[in-house]
């Protein structure tokens, strides 16, 4: 079955760029009606949707982060990635990548049904 | 954005109890709502999609209901492994938003 694995540095300095990659295994990132997303969870807090990217490469970002977020998909490597610029301590969180299924048009979403284990990213000098 | 509220924010219950958690959207989202369960240190797990459809492999003691702006998640007979935090999420409109969570603890 499809599995997701996040990778990237566990510590980023303030004002620098956080870069994470999610590797998809057990299936192709190009197959099926799926969009690929990032969700984060600050320590002791709830879940925050960061954004999603479609197989076409079209992204949708949370407006609260939009000016700092970029996502892209690498179909050849079966990966998708997140870049978050100008990080501060408020960006310290567990970052999850996840798969979102949909059907029809306009898209009717099922929910994030496959998640990575999550990777902890701290922002500190 | 469509804010979601959940109630209660936490609850204590016995094994075997029937538990209901509610989620309210700030506007009509039809049935574009999912429920997730998260245990400490783990990724969330999808339980319910389209407000009332049970995800494959999820025990039938979990059920969801509701439409438009009011939704609920019910656990018919609480099991030890159900003690966790539950989140609702709206998938009607970007940005997808999560509720603040409901923590279910052992009494």
Q: State the low-pLDDT regions of chain B, or none.
A: none
How far is the N terminus from the C terminus of chain B?
36 Å
What is the overall silhouette of chain A?
Answer: globular
Give the structural class of chain A: mainly beta
How much of the sequence lies in strands of chain B comes to over 45%
Topology pattern of chain A, helix = H, strand = E: EEEEEEEEEEE
Number of strands of chain B: 11
Oligomer: heterodimer
Mean model confidence by pLDDT of chain B: 97
* CA-CA gap between termini of chain A: 39 Å
Q: How many distinct helices of chain A?
A: 0
- What Rg of chain A do the Cα atoms give? 14 Å
What integer is the average pLDDT of chain A? 95
Give the topology string of chain B: H per helix, E per strand.
EEEEEEEEEEE
Total count of helical runs of at least 4 residues of chain B: 0
Please identify the structural class of chain B as seen in this structure.
mainly beta
Q: Largest sheet of chain B, described in full?
A: 7 strands, mixed
Estimated helix fraction of chain B: under 10%
From the spread of the alpha carbons, the general shape of chain B counts as globular
Greatest interface: A-B, 24 and 24 residues
* Unreliably modeled segments of chain A: none
Notes on the structure:
The complex is a heterodimer of chains A (125) and B (107). Chain A has no helices and 11 strands. In chain A, strands 2, 4, 5, 6, 9, 10 and 11 form a 7-stranded mixed beta sheet that branches. In chain A, strand 5 and strand 6 form a beta hairpin. Chain B has no helices and 11 strands. In chain B, strands 2, 4, 5, 6, 9, 10 and 11 form a 7-stranded mixed beta sheet that branches. A 4-stranded antiparallel beta sheet of chain B has the order 1-3-8-7, with no helix packed on it. In chain B, a hairpin with a 3-residue loop joins strand 5 and strand 6. The radius of gyration of chain B is 13 Å and the shape is globular. The mean pLDDT of chain B is 97. The interface between A and B is medium-sized, with 24 and 24 residues.
